[in-house]
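name: query_chain
kind: protein
chains: 1
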Amino acid sequence: MNPKDIIKGRGAQKNTNNRFSEFSSELRDDFLEFCRLEGEEANPNKTQYLPIFPKTIVNKVDSPDVGMTYSLNPYQGCEHGCIYCYARNSHEYWGYSAGLDFERKILIKKDAPNLLEAKLKTKNWKAATIVLSGNTDCYQPAEQQFKITRACLEIFLKYRHPVGIITKNALVLRDLDILVQLAKDNLIGVNISVTTLSETTRRILEPRTASIQKRLETIRILSEHKIPVNAMLAPIIPGINSHEILPLAKAVCDNGALSFGFTVVRLNGAIGGIFEDWIRKTLPDRADKVLNQIKDCHGGSLNDSRYGLRSRGEGKIAEQIHDMIHLAKRKYFKDKSFPKLNTSLYKQYKDGQLRLFDE
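structure:
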């Protein structure tokens, strides 16, 4: 494929049809010719911010593989454009494609802070860590404009409620003032995703994310301010970043991370087709090798839906990945651990002086 035909700054290189829609679409040659003659763009590569108005904002997470009980997502869709992102499929529930639409049509939940406060004030709510970005990154580019994540952090601080963050964007440092206050009471844990040490790989795999150097610097700065950091070396993709496990673990350790997690890539739903289209266009020389190795980790398929196995993989290649992970933890994280967050302060900040009359 001609490199000029690659859509720059995007992960997905096409829009897949929405499995929930009775309609499908395609870019026909006659339409493309019409656009050329009219001087119009057939497929403008611009990001749209679309407001939505959900009734609730805190989601119960039932999956045993995710490692969280509650999540909060200020945005749906993600401009970072990570080609492997499992959240792509959720965009189909909103009537969009898991491909380019996921990166270019960002749904904005401006009322998220108010909905969060209403949830924390409900009578039956008991403190449990709520993770920002269980689905899409809360510090993606839209946050620079809308500042919804910062407003939510202010609510968590107001009620002294534990909160986790998952991001691959250095924008999290903008809110260092709030994070430091949360950390004083052990109310915050930050997960920084670092998938490669190669900028060349990062640019095609995660096109609109912070540079690797910025992410490592973010881990260091957060750690220096006594904010606990877990690094997410995820996903591990055979043939793309699987050879980097030890250097990645060393890099995040050297910058202050207290622990790291990982997953073996799986390409569920529409993501399999999106990923295969992407790799055949961007890395054609190794496409078959990578796809076959991913299949080897999931019983001959690009996807695996079995709880307990779908994020770990099985088979010889998955075993090799697990062996390297265990070695990395013994070598670099033997005497480190990520703290459990504090849930004891929330009740008194929720009830205020009213608690005095209950005792």
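note: The domain at 32-264 is CATH 3.20.20.70 (TIM Barrel).
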